[in-house]
Specification:
The complex is a heterodimer of chains A (about 80) and B (about 575). Chain A has about 80 residues and is an all-alpha fold. Helix content of chain A is about 55%, strand content about 0%. In chain B, helix 11 packs parallel to helix 13. Classes of the chains: A mainly alpha (about 80), B alpha/beta (about 575). Chain B: Keywords: Acyltransferase, Cell inner membrane, Cell membrane, Membrane, Transferase.
Chain lengths: ~80, ~575
């Protein structure tokens, strides 16, 4: 699981052009949006596209659930594991 | 429904001669009566009072004459209050064939949720003028319900399920005179009530009084149809969804074929009027209807007037010339014509000759390269038309991104005209990551996606960017612009405007490069977003000044209300 966590962190940094941030700087359980890493809604869209490209996962159209899956690196990892096509 | 408890409901206005016989012949069914005296003259009043003495009769006396509808409504409420489940309405003048009563009762008991109505089979005694009048009404009702389900709407011989009916009476105001019989049926149909018919003979008895005041009642009925016609327009999706739903139910073959024909006929009737009489005649017919709507529909009128005030004030301050004759009435008329344009476009009535495309060279370059693009549209003019024409005349696939559940049903209307209409309609709840993924796929396949940029999100209204529009800041949604940035596809603006100066329908489609790609760098994202939205607003303003009557955002555009509808 930790490999996947690091993979996702690297993906976030690359997809969103987070130049000043390293994999170590992102906490697995910390919120990605708002207070934690401080990502915004355009980042959510870009991250969604990157995740789809790399893991070929389908994201539920239900907005509230999407928000839960995108909460942290840990929740994204769980979602990817469950939905890997 | 717990128990089937019917009663007879007889509205009575000066039918003293006939009501007693009607009552007597109905006694064989051993059901209680609710008699309504609709402010009758003293002779009839006496007869009714005497009849009211009987233990099985409840007499409701209206001090002043209300009209047949008023009397029936009073009777329906009384019957419901007394705990009856159904009311069997019968006219007091003896024109209904009482031999049909057992069948009406049996069907009503078997289908307690349904409204059962007689469907008249006339004998020789019917005056011809009445018969022709009925045909006109039939056609109206078919249009209003977009179906042939209502086979007859004027027969006052009916079994009403009281719970649903009284609920409807509490909710809306229904005509009190001869318009009642028709209006209640259409409104019950709209409310989702199943309506069934049984054939019945109607006799015009000698000496019978029918209170059909030719002039006044026809005026009332015309006003009612106008009201119902406009009630139908927003209900088109629901009415058609109902058709499609009922077709999916297992049914006898011949019924389902009839129903399918009914759906198409409803819409085709509208188009047929337009085709047969031509566009000018249709526009002419539209005028009184829109006029009525204009006078009674306060919300849309207010919004239109606000828009026109902003527009003229801005044009004055900038020394710009506006087209003549701007009025909120003409504004609404223009909207009516656009509805027709959409139907006609999907029907294939417009040819490439009807269209001038400005900026086609950009389009072709991209189409050749098989590169997908994002088209930013608006509620100015008619985008549906662009989609229809591209579908019919080019290989370019234009997908439209639409919100709300209604969109899918709205699409059913277009699909009934042209099955291709639904192929590229993408319906989403919100602009989230899942939407981005879906659209990315389309763009990668070399297709176009149209997103409108002028309506704030119904679910996330606070996510807006304020930009100047006609001299005042207005809220624009963030979503479409963020989406465009994430998708990194070339972004074009798309406007489809009708040229009202020509007698033949003609449309100008404007296609202009906007951003390629649209970027919102992290460092000054907010500023970049404000700039992008500002540029969009300024182009929207440019085209709005070209065709102000085709501005179809009928709400206060410069304010957040929390109640925006996306369709």
């Amino acid at each position: 699981m930790e490999t996947l966590h690091n993979e996702i962190k690297a993906l976030i940094i690359e997809a969103l052009n987070l130049e000043d941030i390293q994999v170590e700087d992102i906490e697995t359980e910390a919120p990605l949006f708002g207070d934690g890493l401080g990502l915004d809604s355009i980042d959510a869209l870009e991250l969604g596209l990157a995740l789809k490209k790399q893991y070929n996962i389908v994201i539920d159209a239900d907005d509230t659930k999407t928000r839960e899956h995108f909460a942290s690196v840990a929740s994204l990892a769980n979602y990817i594991t469950e939905n890997k096509a | 429904m717990s128990e089937y408890r019917p009663c007879f409901l007889i509205p009575c206005y000066n039918h003293g001669n006939t009501v007693e016989a009607v009552l007597a012949s109905l006694r064989q069914f051993q059901l209680p009566f609710v008699l309504v005296d609709d402010g009758s003259e003293s002779a009839t009043k006496q007869v009714l009072e005497q009849l009211g003495q009987a233990s099985d009769v409840t007499l409701v006396t209206l001090a002043e004459n209300q009209g047949k509808g008023g009397a029936v409504m009073a009777g329906l409420r009384q019957a419901y209050a007394q705990g009856f489940s159904h009311a069997i309405q019968i006219d007091a003048d003896g024109q209904h064939d009482l031999e049909t009563v057992p069948r009406l009762l049996a069907l009503s008991q078997e289908q307690p949720q349904s409204l059962i109505s007689g469907q008249p089979v006339y004998d020789e005694s019917v005056p011809k003028s009445r018969l022709y009048g009925r045909y006109a009404t039939h056609i109206w009702v078919w249009i209003e319900t977009l179906s042939l389900d209502i086979k007859d709407s004027m027969c006052g011989f009916r079994a009403y399920p009281l719970a649903q009916t009284v609920q409807l009476l509490n909710r809306c105001k229904i005509g009190k005179r001869m318009d009642f019989d028709i209006e209640i049926l259409v409104r019950m149909y709209w409310a989702g009530t199943d309506i069934r018919f049984i054939p019945t003979r109607v006799i015009y008895p000698e000496g019978g009084i029918s209170h059909f005041d030719a002039l006044w009642d026809n005026v009332k009925i015309s006003a009612m149809h106008t009201r119902l016609f406009f009630g139908m327009l927003p209900r088109i999706p629901k009415l058609l969804a109902r058709k499609f739903k009922s077709q999916n139910k297992p049914q006898q073959t011949h019924w389902s074929t009839t129903k399918e024909r009914g759906t198409i006929l409803g819409i085709k009737t509208l188009l047929w009027i337009y085709r047969l009489l031509g566009r000018r005649a249709f526009s002419l017919m539209l005028k009184p209807v829109i006029g009525y709507y204009h006078l009674t529909g306060k919300q849309a009128r207010t919004a239109s007037e606000e828009f026109l005030a902003h527009l003229t004030q801005y044009a004055d301050s900038q020394n710009l010339e506006l087209p003549d004759n701007l009025s909120s009435y003409r504004h609404q008329l223009s909207f009516g014509e656009t509805m027709l344009d959409k139907l006609a476009a999907w029907q294939g009535d417009f040819k490439p000759d009807n269209l001038t495309i400005h900026g086609q060279e950009h389009f072709e370059r991209l189409a050749e390269g098989k590169q997908g693009m994002l088209l930013l549209g608006s509620h100015l003019g008619n985008l549906e038309l662009c989609r229809a024409l591209s579908r019919q005349n080019t290989d370019i696939k234009i997908n439209a991104l639409v919100f709300t559940q209604h969109a899918e049903q709205f699409n059913n209307v277009m699909e009934a005209i042209n099955p291709e209409a639904g192929v590229n309609l993408i319906q989403v709840q919100s602009l989230g990551p899942s939407t981005a993924i879906l659209l990315k796929q389309k763009l990668d396949d070399g297709e176009c996606v149209v997103v409108v940029g002028d309506r704030t999100s119904a679910t996330q209204e606070e996510r807006v960017v304020w930009a100047d529009f006609l001299g005042q800041p207005a809220p624009f949604p963030q979503g479409p612009f963020l989406l465009a940035a994430a998708l990194r596809a070339p972004v074009f603006l798309l406007f489809g405007l009708r040229d009202d100066s020509r007698s033949e329908p003609h449309f100008n489609v404007y296609f202009e490069p906007f951003r390629d790609p649209l970027t919102l760098p992290r460092k000054d994202r907010e500023q970049a977003l404000t700039q992008v939205v500002g540029d969009y607003a300024s182009r929207l303003e440019h085209y709005t000044l070209k065709a102000p009557m085709q501005w179809y955002n009928f709400y206060n555009f410069w304010q957040l209300t929390g109640q925006h509808n996306d369709k």
